[in-house]
Amino acid sequence: MLKVESVSKLFNPGTVDEKIALMNAELHLKKGDFVTVIGSNGAGKSTLMNLISGVMKPDAGNISIDGNNVTLVPEHKRSQWIGRVFQDPMAGTAPRMTIEENMAIAYKRGLARGFSLGVTGKTRKIFREELHRLGIGLENRMGAKVGLLSGGERQALSLLMATFTRPQILLLDEHTAALDPARAELVTTLTEAIVRELNLTTLMVTHNMEQAIRLGNRLIMMDKGRIILQVDEDRKKDLTVERLLGEFEQISGKKMADDRVVLG
Ligand SMILES: Nc1ncnc2c1ncn2[C@@H]1O[C@H](COP(=O)(O)OP(=O)(O)OP(=O)(O)O)[C@@H](O)[C@H]1O
């Protein structure tokens, strides 16, 4: 489904500020794989997500989705295959627009050109049904401005909007990190339900080790621009935070340096 093959990305190449953000990354995901991504500060996690979503182009290597080489396909064209939710609840939605207007934008992404942004009776019914699936009552507040929603509600809406058009791949970039524990848990539960129901191929960056172990069927660990550890389905079942930290120290020769890391 998703193939990242020998992908590298350098910033400021050939200067004193040269930075290897990603080096020879190799990652193959099957349909329905849910991979959690963990790593120290500056490990290259966001760069990997940005390269997959097309925000930036790699200096070397190829990225393909469902057999199509998308390495040079611009971000707006890739968005038909990829849904993404960011850490900042403000990032995925337009605060001055209502819930249904926001949903209309997400809906339009999945339709042919020329679809009007207007919310008709038919689309409103679809939106209401989709919102109802979240189970947090947003279907009764469709005319409310999104800026008035709580962070958790906004992230739940962003998640719904990112998956509305049934993308092939879902990228979650620490999407629960800015929420309080109760809301983070709600959005996590919704994430699991949506990913399972739509059988989405998912990559989720998290600083929460316990979450990285608990969610998904695979796990990767990154350090200094490299994927240093890939844990497959069978081994992931036996993983613990202690074991994961031990593996990191053994491979990288240092302790996990990330003040945001949550051990569980
Ligand atoms: N636009 C940029 N220009 C220069 N260097 C960059 C740029 N973006 C990222 N980097 C560098 O590339 C490396 C990887 O960054 P990236 O943001 O991918 O790491 P990360 O694993 O997401 O880190 P964090 O968990 O701290 O957000 C870092 O050293 C970072 O400073």
UniProtKB/TrEMBL annotation:
GO MF terms, alphabetically ordered: ATP binding; ATP hydrolysis activity
GO CC terms, sorted: plasma membrane
Cell compartment(s), UniProt: Cell membrane
Membrane topology (UniProt): Peripheral membrane protein
A Pfam family annotated for this UniProt entry: ABC_tran
UniProt entry keywords in alphabetical sequence: ATP-binding, Cell membrane, Membrane, Nucleotide-binding, Transport
Keyword Transferase tagged: no
Top-level division of the source organism's lineage: Bacteria
Protein known as: ABC transporter ATP-binding protein
